[in-house]
Amino acid sequence: MRNVIVTGGSRGLGLGIAQTLARSGFQVIAIARQQGEALPTAMEQTAKEAKGALRFRAFDLADIEGIAGLVKSLRAEFGPIHGLVNNAGLGTAGILANMPVNVIERIVRLNVVSPLTLTKFVVRSMMSEQSGRIVNISSVVATNGYSGLSVYSTTKAALLGFTGSLARELGSLGITVNTVAPGFVDTEMTRELTQAERSQIERRSALKRMPEISDIADAVDFLFSDKARNITGTTITVDAGNTV
């Protein structure tokens, strides 16, 4: 059973991705600071389905210095790492002129420095195996402006550049690197939106709706499948046509 790490995998979008990959036969290791309320039930359900597996290991990804040790311990416990989904991130909103510098630094640390560092150590396992899949979860705000999300948008745009360059670095080793860019999805991160704001997003979308967690999870699952073996360095946008 191939091992896949999903960061921020204890709830919301990350948990949806983790469950979908487990159903496809992977052993998924969900990484998050806390287990969350929904994860134990998801782990039990995955065990009953008898396909893949869903595990949990607690770790604060803001602890950049501890990431090397985390990866070492995961490899010792589970074996080679086949896949990585960089999903964890802070979606803190705020007008740039009013945002404290320490908040900016915290967002950049978790959304950019952390996934780059985690990938650095995980990819060594993939290089030795001459295979692997990396999927970075960005956002449509990386390329389309949205008021109050300038810092968040910057970090998500950074993942696009990261994907393209890393795909070039690792392609000859049989490792693919891609990005999935969700639109506004019904998760905890978007529940602060008012009904009027949600309705506006739906009206602006070509399909007149918001995508669901399962839509993004299915896109990630596709990139992990053999059908996507020749897809690398690209971005799949899942936004119900919001940015068309």
Can you offer a commentary on this structure?
The protein has helices at about 10-25, 40-50, 65-80, 100-130, 150-170, 195-205, 215-225, and strands spanning about 5, 25-30, 55-60, 80-85, 130-135, 175-180, 235-240. α1 runs parallel beside α2 (about 40-50) and α1 packs across α7 (about 215-225). By secondary structure, it is of the alpha/beta class. The chain is globular, with a radius of gyration of 17 Å. The longest helix is centred in the middle third of the chain and has 29 residues, at about 100-130. Strands 3-2-1-4-5-6-7 form a seven-stranded parallel β-sheet, sandwiched between helices.
Question: Number of helix segments?
Answer: 7
Strand order across the biggest sheet? 3-2-1-4-5-6-7
> What helical percentage do the residues reach?
40-55%
Q: Report the mean per-residue pLDDT as an integer.
A: 93
Name the overall outline. globular
Q: Would you report the number of β strands?
A: 7
Low-confidence stretches: none
For the largest beta-sheet, the strand count, sense and barrel status come to:
7 strands, parallel
Q: What radius of gyration results from the CA coordinates?
A: 17 Å
Q: Based on the structure, what is the oligomeric state of the protein chains?
A: single chain
Strand coverage percent: 15-25%
Order of helices and strands: EHEHEHEHEHEHHE
Structural class: alpha/beta
Q: Distance between termini?
A: 39 Å
Give me a quick take on this structure.
By secondary structure, the chain is of the alpha/beta class.
Secondary structure layout:
Blueprint: E1 3-7, H1 12-23, E2 27-32, H2 39-49, E3 53-58, H3 67-78, E4 81-86, H4 101-129, E5 132-137, H5 150-170, E6 175-182, H6 195-204, H7 213-224, E7 235-238
Parallel strand pairs: 1-2, 1-4, 2-3, 4-5, 5-6, 6-7
Helix pairs in contact: 1-2, 1-7, 3-4, 4-5
